[in-house]
Amino acid sequence: MAAFHHHHHHHLLHPSADLRRLFHRLTIASSLSILCFSLVYLLTGCCESELTETSELKTPTREFLVSWSGWPHGRNGTSAAQEGLSAAAGEGALSGHPGLEANSSGKEWTATRRLPQALIIGVKKGGTRALLEFLRLHPDIRALGSEPHFFDRHYARGLDWYRSMMPKALDGQIVMEKTPRYFVTVETPERVHSMSQDVKLIVVVRDPVTRAISDYTQIISKTPNIPPFESLVFKNHSTGQIDSLWSPLWIGLYAQHLERWLTWFPRTQIHLVSGERLISDPAGELGRVQDFLGLQRIVTDKHFYFNKTKGFPCLKKPEGSSKPHCLGKTKGRTHASIDPEVMQRLRDFYKPHNQRFYQMVGQDFGWQ
Predict the structure, then answer these.
(1) Mean pLDDT of 234-250
(2) Is the pLDDT of residue 24 over 50?
(3) Where is the active site (predicted)?
(4) Active site annotation includes 125
(5) What are the structural domains of the chain?
(6) Where are the alpha helices (DSSP H) in the chain?
(7) Which residue ranges make up the annotated binding site for 3'-phosphoadenylyl sulfate?
(8) pTM of this prediction?
(9) pLDDT tens sequence across 34-47
(10) Rounded to 5 degrees, what are φ and ψ at 46?
């Protein structure tokens, strides 16, 4: 008892020493953590502001930044594969920093959701997914991964819903989405115009005959017991009259669809991409699209290699990923073989339409 009492008494004599020791440890711990935190903050802060001030950077630094951030895993957040087609896809890597400190020029580098400034409006089976994936390599493009179908199917949900679908973007970045059905839906041009008169429109066009076969090939993959292509092409076999209202054929009447867009938008706001050249010369086509969007040409031939099995250009190894990135299994399907005579009938059918289209756009796509 005495020993216990003595021990207890001894303890009461130096409570302040214990407290002081504890306080000392706490001080050291907290100052260390503050130091660590500020270091991390400074480092990320610097990188962020450097990344975001790309517009004022000189080319060499910019090249370096791109090699580091321009791949689908860089500033464009997740890669398309990870993003899948989830509705909220396209969330950026920067969304984690909603309020970066204002930098020297006093601008706030805050990523916000904005309505798109550019749209890929068509055409179905023209190469729109490839174009979007290639464009996403650009650090100044923020693109939605899925097709929102706002102007054709979900218009009633309103612009606020549409805006909420968009990825977050910084001031100098261009927000875009692709929905190939926009090009052929009658009410879309006016609706797009009422959102923005200055929106930039991109249309990937491809030989309407091969486009139709590609379309039909996609339909077979979804509904296997569909009648053969040849029987769907004609309204009536004996007269050989072509059913131009059958969706795979109707979509290829480009002049007719473009006319509707030209009643709402000037030709200078519409850029046409050749679907064929997008495969044979992806860098050249991408260069022209970047010019049209007012962006520095950052996506170049260094980004592509040609995959012989797929018959498609693929993206060279994105950093942070061991494998090169090609388009998914549903792309580059082997086309159904079609009776050559029917092919010729279709070529003859499209010829005047194609000629009219070339004249409207002042460009010859050289389709047979």
Answers:
(1) 94
(2) yes
(3) 125 (for sulfotransferase activity)
(4) yes
(5) 112-207+251-331 (3.40.50.300)
(6) 2-13, 15-52, 59-69, 80-83, 128-135, 158-165, 188-195, 208-222, 229-233, 247-250, 254-262, 275-280, 282-292, 340-361
(7) 125-129, 206, 214, 331-335
(8) 0.70
(9) 775 665 566 555 44
(10) -60, -50
The residue with tokens 């020029």 is 105
Tell me: pLDDT of 132 over 90.
Answer: yes
Reduced to 3 states (helix: H, G, I; strand: E, B; else coil), residue 254 is: helix
Omega before 361 within 30 of 0, i.e. cis: no
Q: Positive or negative, the Cα torsion across 163, 169, 174, 178?
A: negative
Render pLDDT for 316-328 as a digit per residue (tens, 0 to 9). 855 446 566 788 8
**Residue 352 token pair:** 């005047």
pLDDT in tens, 293-313: 999 999 988 888 788 777 888
Take residue 288 and report the two structure tokens written for it: 């022209």
CB 252 within 8 A of CB 183: no
The residue that leads in pLDDT, 202 or 24, is 202
Do 148 and 178 contact (CB within 8 A), yes or no?
Answer: no
Q: Which two tokens stand for residue 17?
A: 């020493």
Which member of 58, 107, 124, 125 is catalytic? 125
What residues form the annotated binding site? 125-129, 206, 214, 331-335
What are the φ and ψ backbone dihedral angles of 186, each rounded to 5 degrees? -60, -45
Indicate the length of the chain as a whole number.
Answer: 368
The 10 Å CB-count burial string (b at 16+, else e) for 233-266 is bbeeeeeeebeeebebbebbbbbebbebbeebbe
Only one residue has tokens 């951030």, namely 69
Per-residue pLDDT for 126 more than 70?
A: yes
Mean pLDDT of 74-89: 38
Structure tokens of 269? 């706001």
The whole-angstrom separation of Cα 192 and Cα 347 is 33
Q: How confident is the model at residue 236 (pLDDT cuts 50, 70, 90)?
A: confident
